[in-house]
Structure formats: structure tokens, C-alpha cells
Design goal:
Number of domains: 1
Radius of gyration: 15 Å
CATH architecture: 2-Layer Sandwich
CATH class: Alpha Beta
Largest sheet: 3 strands, mixed
Shape: globular
Number of helices: 4
CATH topology: Zincin-like
Length: 119
């Protein structure tokens, strides 16, 4: 569970990155997501999973910048990758850590598991 203070600090961090990247954010929501760390809409809305404010700052930055860049670049092509590297350096390491964390949490969190489908 994410504390109100952690959410407040995380939202401030997200706004600071938005300002740095010259991106207009309409709203920032933190709520449970089942299959991803975050999402964004073309109308300027950001939604982050409740786990993100509890991650290490570097991993938070990776998720934040990833989504903010999608306001300008809707794909993961060469330009998007170049900007991720420009702002975060070796962002691929962060993404690998996020996959590892997600995998460990999935193993330990039965509430997020998808039940097996009947044959």
C-alpha cells in the first residue's frame, strides 16, 4: 500500500519531470493496475500503478519519463529510445529491473494473478 505522503512526493516528482520535458500534464492518478506500471492518454492524463511510488527513485524516473515521452512520441522507436537515453542514460537497465520487480511481485501477490483458464 502506498502512503499518502509517498503519493504526494511521487506526484511532485512527476510534475518536476513534466516541467523539465516541457510536457503539459492534466492529471496524475495512482491506482492499482493489473498489467503495467503506467499509462498515459492523449489528453494529458497519467495513471501509475500503486507500486510505482514505492520503487527506488531511479526506477520511478524510468516509469515517469517513459510515459511523459509518449505525449510527444507515441511509440518506442529510435527517437523515443534516443530521448530515454538522453534523460536517463542506460534506461534499459532500469527496464530490466522493472521486469524483475514485476516478476517477483507477481509470484508473491496472489491478488494480481490471473486464474488458470478451464480447458
Amino acid at each position: 500500500m502506498t502512503s499518502p505522503d509517498a503519493k504526494t512526493r511521487f506526484k511532485a516528482r512527476t510534475r518536476a519531470w513534466a516541467q523539465k520535458l516541457d510536457v503539459e500534464v492534466v492529471s496524475i492518478t495512482v491506482r492499482p493496475l493489473t498489467t503495467k506500471w503506467a499509462s498515459c492518454s492523449s489528453t494529458g492524463r497519467l495513471t501509475f500503478d500503486t507500486r510505482v511510488p514505492n520503487l527506488a527513485r531511479g526506477l520511478q524516473d524510468c516509469v515517469i519519463v517513459h510515459e511523459l515521452l509518449h505525449f510527444s512520441i507515441p511509440n518506442h522507436g529510435p527517437l523515443w529510445k534516443s530521448l530515454m537515453r538522453a534523460h536517463l542514460g542506460d534506461y534499459e537497465k532500469c527496464e530490466a529491473w522493472l521486469r524483475l520487480v514485476a516478476g517477483e511481485q507477481a509470484l508473491n501477490d496472489t491478488s494480481r494473478r490471473v486464474p488458470p483458464q478451464p480447458s
